[in-house]
Amino acid sequence: MANGAGIGALMGMGLGVMLIAIVVGIIVGTLILMLATRMVEKFTPSFGKALVTEIACMIAWVIVSMVLAMVLGVGLSGRLVAAVVNFFVGAWIIQQLITPSGGAVANGGAAALTAGQKMGYARACLIALVEYIVGIVIGVILAVVFGVMFGGAMLSALHH
Hints:
Elements: H1 2-41, H2 47-72, H3 76-97, H4 121-158
C-alpha cells in the first residue's frame, strides 16, 4: 500500500510540474511574441491579445504535430516537417490575431498599420522567425545550465 501511495504522489507531482511548465511556457511565449512584434512591427500588442494568440498557436501546433506524426511517423523527418508546418501555421495565426490597437504606428514604422488593419503574411513570418530564434536561444541556455547542474551531480555520484 505504501508503494502505491508513493507512486501516486510522484505521478501527482509530475502532473503538477508539467502544468506549471506549460503555464510558464505560455507566459514566456507571450512575452517573446510581444517583443518580436515590437521589433518587427514597431508596436506592442496588449498582453491579453498576445496571450490569446500564443494559446491559439500552441493548440494549433499540438494538433498539427499529432496529425503529421500519424501521417509521417515519429522520426526525425516527420519532426522537421512538423516544425516547418508549425512555423507557417503560427505565422498565419499571428497575422490573423495581432492587430494594432489604435492610430498610426509611431516613428514611421515599417508597416505603418492603422487600427484594426492586419499585417502582411511576410511580416507575420518574420515575427514567428524572431520568436523561434529567441526560443532556441533560451532553450540552449537552459540546456547548458541544467546540463552543468545535473551533469556535475551525476559525475560526483559516480566517484563515490
